[in-house]
Write a structure and sequence with these properties.
heterodimer; A: alpha/beta; four-stranded parallel sheet; 8 strands; globular; B: Nucleotidyltransferase, domain 5; five-stranded mixed sheet; 10 strands; about 20% strand
Chain lengths: ~425, ~270
């Protein structure tokens, strides 16, 4: 039975991971290195999209800063609601990416949480901005804005979109674009690209991604030692520190802790009874609330498309540029509906999930797989129970908490009957 | 000796309570404004329903709360969402595969249930008042008519207008434009109901018989006709449309919310 909502809710329904302390250390060390480089002129700064060519930038000696991570921090701190209207007043539609509007709004206000978190004076001034449109084209406009503001060059990779099977032609196109970046970046970096250094960086990136994938994979066990909301925090290094030894070491430590949980039968959520999958962006301003809500119903969100995006195991140091191109192009987000459907069904099977939560993020159409009938198809053709929730990645004004909570609770009630009749899918 | 069960539906506008016996016959019911004191409303409606049923609290076997304020009823033995309860309640009158459309004060739900009342799929409205009771309330204010009069006005309409349904504020602007154009208030009122229907129709495919539940249909019976005219379907409205959520909650109280699942389990074990 679902406990009466008025009943005293047990605390610590979600077990915290000890690795969080190491996480804080490595993330802080990384941000301090960027801060020191930016404010002390010790190294050049490159801004990069979260699935841009970070390995190449690091190999050329840049310190790499990720505005999307800044957007996520603004969302987590619930500062987006304050900054989005500022960007809107400067001509940026409230309908576009709320990472973008949060970030530009904060810049216009001359504010950043990096000041209190890591001692920055402001966001680090870029020497170059490098985007990849593999997740969305809005990043190009975002980076172009800052390129104008900082009078810094903006370079980009325009990855093929809506890709069915990834072909040699797709990869070649991206390889050519990466190669075309190199002379420009060398000039800005003031150094030639050392291929051995690129191989080393790609190897570190690959190793961190593989360890991350392994950590996510532990959630296939029942009970799951790891949940989506843990993942949203612990994915930090694989997003902003790919190509760094610290990221590899961190994920080895995380993996060790998760393996121990598996061995001891310890779940992330106490008394796990339902296993769910989350598709789409998180709602950054509601991470804790959502984690607690699912845990209250003994539901563990065991896997997600989002966290798995950075499991770039296709990276190969023996063929660094081609493998970067392939890894960046093979992402779920820029694939066709058919490929995405198969991926979701495979994940649901691998992680033994009872149902899928689809987040229709108002300002992130690229990462909302609800707009071309997919949830209905999965339900009708494959009997995959699912629920579409409305919300947003950063703009919590677009979230109705009551509707979200009721929707999740009703979905659990539906799954409860599935359990009564015996078995999940 | 009979046992008695209570369902409390704490809605955004009204709190509804029904008292039933173990055959699910309604012995007493009550509706009070929810207001800002949800617990107070639940207690008051509970007491009134018991009084109507000529029962004392001690005789009540189980209380189940539902509705948007279900968490505010600490004396309930358990809770269920209004989605589950409207499915169960509608099934009580129409035990077939049906689509339940519950139009409430602040939200609208489309629930597909099987012949035992089991929720097979559901959709909630977007974060928007359009298509809900709050929309009609706001539009009545724009027209300077009482909400209770909107139904009768619409019943005298001679023109079939369609108003925008994406935003309450912009629909209000459309209403003002129609007023400026000297359109009859009766025709505008019908257009508002048609707007609600359009909004519901885009939430999802209405499969099987369509059953309309909730306070809005109870107080605006013309909606049934407009649903049928606009969507070319046949709709059913249960006798106690406003109390369907509370009635569904009593089925949970009786342990009758998982009949279909238990049946399937039995079938599975026979096969096994």
């Amino acid at each position: 039975m679902i406990p009466a909502r008025g009943a005293v809710v047990q605390r610590h329904l979600v077990r915290p991971l000890k690795s969080i302390e190491l996480f804080k250390q490595v993330i802080t060390r990384n941000y301090h290195a960027i801060r020191d480089a930016a404010e002390g002129g010790r190294a050049r700064i490159a801004w990069c999209t979260s699935l841009g060519p970070a390995e190449l930038l690091r190999a050329l000696g840049f310190k790499v800063y990720f505005p999307e991570n800044h957007g996520a921090i603004l969302g987590s701190f619930r500062a987006s609601e304050e900054f989005i209207p500022v960007a809107t007043a400067h001509g940026f539609s409230p309908e576009i990416c709320s990472y973008l509007t949060s970030d530009i709004g904060a810049f216009l206000r001359k504010e950043t949480p990096l000041r209190t978190l890591y001692g920055f004076k402001s966001v680090p001034k870029p020497d170059v901005l490098v985007y990849n449109t593999n997740q969305c084209r809005e990043v190009a406009e975002w980076f172009s804005y800052f390129g104008r503001e900082f009078k810094a060059p903006v370079l980009g990779i325009n990855t093929p979109h809506h890709v069915p099977e990834v072909t040699v032609a797709h990869i070649s196109s991206v390889v050519d674009q990466i190669n075309a970046l190199i002379p420009h970046l060398e000039k800005i970096a003031g150094t030639r690209l050392d291929m051995n250094e690129l191989k080393r960086t790609v190897k570190l990136s690959h190793d961190a991604c593989v360890e991350w994938k392994g950590a996510l994979g532990t959630a296939a066990h029942t009970p799951s030692p790891f949940n989506f909301f843990d993942g949203l925090i612990h994915m930090g290094p694989v997003v902003i520190m790919r190509g760094m030894q610290d990221a590899v070491d961190y994920y080895k430590a995380l993996r060790k802790e998760l393996d121990e949980r598996v061995k001891d039968g310890i779940g992330a959520v106490e008394d796990e009874n339902y296993r769910l999958y989350w598709d789409g962006m998180p709602m950054w301003g509601r991470i804790r609330a959502h984690s607690n809500l699912f845990a209250k119903f003994k539901a563990c969100v065991v896997a997600s498309t989002y966290c798995n995006t950075w499991a770039l195991d296709l990276l190969d140091h023996n063929d660094p540029i081609r493998s970067m191109a392939e890894a960046y192009t093979s992402l779920f987000i820029n694939r066709t509906e058919g490929i995405k459907e198969k991926y979701l069904l495979d994940m649901a099977k691998d992680f033994s999930v009872d149902g899928i939560i689809f987040h229709d993020s108002k300002t992130c159409p690229y990462n909302s797989n609800t707009r071309f009938g997919m949830p209905m198809r999965l339900e009708k053709w494959f009997h995959m129970p699912n629920l579409v929730v409305q919300g947003d990645v950063c703009n919590m004004r677009l979230v109705s908490d009551t509707q979200f909570d009721t929707g999740i609770e009703a979905f659990i009630e539906r799954l409860m009957l599935k359990h009564v009749e015996g078995g999940a899918l | 000796m009979s046992k008695y069960y209570v369902g409390i539906d704490v809605g955004s506008w009204n709190t509804k309570v029904v008292v039933v016996d173990d055959t699910l016959e309604i012995l007493g019911k009550s509706v009070v404004r929810s207001g800002a004191d949800l617990l107070g409303a639940a207690k008051k409606a509970y007491e009134e329903a018991l009084k109507a049923a000529k029962l004392k609290k001690a005789k009540v076997e189980s209380v189940v709360a539902t509705g948007f304020g279900r968490a505010k009823v600490p004396f309930a033995d358990t809770t269920r969402t209004e989605i589950t309860c409207h499915g169960l309640g509608a099934n009580q009158y129409y035990p077939a595969s049906i689509s339940v459309v519950d139009i409430g004060g602040q939200d609208t739900k489309l629930i597909r249930v099987d012949d035992t009342g089991r929720n097979l799929h559901f959709v909630l409205n977007r974060k928007c008042a359009a298509g809900t009771g709050a929309f009609l309330e706001e539009m009545a204010r724009r027209l300077d008519v009482k909400l209770d009069d909107l139904n009768d006005l619409a019943s005298r309409a001679t023109k079939h207008f369609r108003l925008g349904s994406f935003c309450t504020v912009f629909t209000g602007t459309e209403v003002l434009k129609m007023v400026q154009d000297n359109e009859k208030v009766e025709d505008i009122a019908r257009g508002l109901y048609a707007s609600v229907v359009l909004r519901v129709s885009e939430m999802g495919h209405l499969e099987g018989h369509v059953v309309l539940t909730g306070g809005v249909i109870a107080h605006n019976p013309i909606l049934k006709d407009i649903f049928e005219e606009e969507l070319k379907i046949i709709c059913l409205v249960p006798p106690e449309a406003e109390f369907i959520g509370a009635l569904g909650a009593t089925r949970v109280a009786l342990g009758l919310d998982d009949e279909s699942a238990k049946k399937k389990k039995k079938e599975k074990s026979k096969k096994g």
